[in-house]
Design brief:
Blueprint: E1 18-23, H1 27-43, E2 51-56, H2 62-72, E3 77-85, H3 91-110, E4 114-121, H4 124-129, H5 138-156
Parallel strand pairs: 1-2, 1-3, 3-4
Length: 162
């Protein structure tokens, strides 16, 4: 039996242009996500001059800004960060679901990684846990996913012209 060929991303060939699009709503949590993402990118060799931050009001506005970044800036990857915390109304489902679906569609449309670091949690305590305490830092995890996908796509070869 022939051995299976295996292609995967690494954290060696990750330098490139990264744009972090950040929702300001719940900034007391989101600021820690940004710190984690930037720190992770720089620690893995991404030049800080190749990291841009774009601020939007909240998670609902992320997809529009991400789309414009993909069209105009044409980065190697986008990292979307924000926090949607459940309240007493169905608003949570609309914002979280709409944001996640739109960002997934954008990465497929532009063939560019859009790492999803938008917290969707039940409480402020859960958000704090995921922003650098008990449950790690989801901003760091999103940056790691973005870098791995940049490396993987390079290994797979050219896609659409950007």
């Amino acid at each position: 039996m022939q051995p299976l060929s295996q292609i995967e991303g690494s954290f060696v060939d990750v330098n490139g242009r990264y744009v972090i699009v950040v929702g300001r709503f719940n900034h007391h949590v989101v600021d820690s996500l940004v710190e984690g993402a930037v720190d992770s990118l720089v620690r893995h060799g991404v030049d800080s001059e190749n990291i841009d931050l774009v601020h939007v009001p909240g998670a609902w506005e992320l997809p529009l800004a991400v789309k414009r970044v993909l069209k105009v800036v044409k980065p190697d990857a986008v990292i979307a960060l924000g926090a949607v915390i459940r309240g007493g109304t169905p608003h949570f489902e609309y914002v979280a679901g709409g944001c996640n679906t739109a960002m997934n569609n954008l990465q497929l449309e532009f063939e560019t990684p859009v790492a999803n670091g938008v917290l969707t949690v039940e409480s402020i305590e859960q958000a704090i846990e995921r922003a650098g305490t008990k449950a790690g830092n989801k901003g760091t995890e999103a940056a790691m996913a973005a870098m791995e996908m940049v490396s993987l796509l390079r290994a797979l070869g050219p896609g659409v012209e950007r």
